[in-house]
Amino acid sequence: MNEIESRWQPKNEKPYVYDFTLEDWQQWVKDNGEAGFRAGQIFDWLYVKRVSSIDEMTNLPKTLRDRLKEQFDFVTLTEVAHYRSKDGTVKFLFELSDENAIETVIMKHSYGNSICVTTQVGCRVGCTFCASTLGGLKRNLTSGEIIAQVVKAQQLLDETQERVSSIVIMGIGEPFENYDAVMKFLKVMIHPKGLNIGQRHITVSTSGIVPNIYRFADEDTQINLAISIHAPNDTLRSKLMPVNRRYPFAELIEACQYYVAKTGRRITFEYALMGGVNDQAEHAEELAKVLKAFPMAHVNLIPVNFVSERDFVRTPRNDIFTFQRILERNKINATIRREQGSDIAAACGQLRAKHMESGAR
């Protein structure tokens, strides 16, 4: 854990039951004089049966359940609100044990249900077009608090016998500034005895925390990487994304090249289009020149969401298509993100921002 992560760590007195990997549970039952198979039983109750309390783990001896209750908290995400869009998108506003609020989104696709999870309470990266940064960073989430979002979403899907088929780590916060918790979260998500999500069905997005892009490249996973780029050069990116002053554009591109060389995997570059700011033909041409260094690159064009506290406006539809055509003419694969949940403030940070306006955290 680096200095940034430790500074923003939560102050919970006991770990959450979701904070432990299966290996952690195996060590814990050994240390507590319990039979080794108990670890698998606990894991099964959490991720297959998806119980809501330790008392429901009925095949565990009462003495063991009592010890678990003494040493662990069951993650409580209190549902403050839960909205369902006409397109099937579901957005949760959860309150944590310290009364901070976070968001989680279920997105319906033809290929299944994708869950967008939050990794921090707020964000300190400071992108000038994003609602997540309003109010700054409060703290990191534990791995268990991130996991609990997926479990809560899966419990809702259980009602219709559906399942979580993919995960995007693109909610509130910068995942690579909470790197260790995110990696522990991923370990549980992909475990065959956990929620068993395929690695290639998980994407983690970063605004460009360069040292942890190198770390992630060395992890030897099949999990997808997305980079929020949003500008084709250093000057414009620094205006839109203050993180670029800490990790300049050239350093980011170099880290991305290392990732591709090390993993052989493509990177998705996310590009939020803002009217009159970064959406002109010359921006598309410049972006294409930068990304020619990445033969498999994919650009996800995102019409910017309106945020009342920000001044940006959405790029006209015809200009979005023009931007896409310029990239494709330069042999850069580009798609336009389909808008989902606009009628329920499903864009990242919008619902929490409204909640904060009411005096909540």
UniProtKB/TrEMBL annotation:
GO terms for molecular function: 4 iron, 4 sulfur cluster binding; metal ion binding; rRNA (adenine(2503)-C2-)-methyltransferase activity; rRNA binding; tRNA (adenine(37)-C2)-methyltransferase activity; tRNA binding. Keywords: 4Fe-4S, Cytoplasm, Disulfide bond, Iron, Iron-sulfur, Metal-binding, Methyltransferase, rRNA processing, S-adenosyl-L-methionine, Transferase, tRNA processing. GO terms for cellular component: cytoplasm. It is an enzyme of class 2 (transferase). [4Fe-4S] cluster binds at residues 123, 127, 130. Its cofactor is [4Fe-4S] cluster. Residues 109-343 form the Radical SAM core domain. Its main location: cytoplasm. PANTHER family: 23S RRNA METHYLTRANSFERASE, RADICAL SAM CORE DOMAIN-CONTAINING PROTEIN. Specifically methylates position 2 of adenine 2503 in 23S rRNA and position 2 of adenine 37 in tRNAs. Belongs to the radical SAM superfamily. RlmN family. This is Probable dual-specificity RNA methyltransferase RlmN. It comes from Paenibacillus tianmuensis. The lineage of its organism: Bacteria, Bacillati, Bacillota, Bacilli, Bacillales. The gene is rlmN.
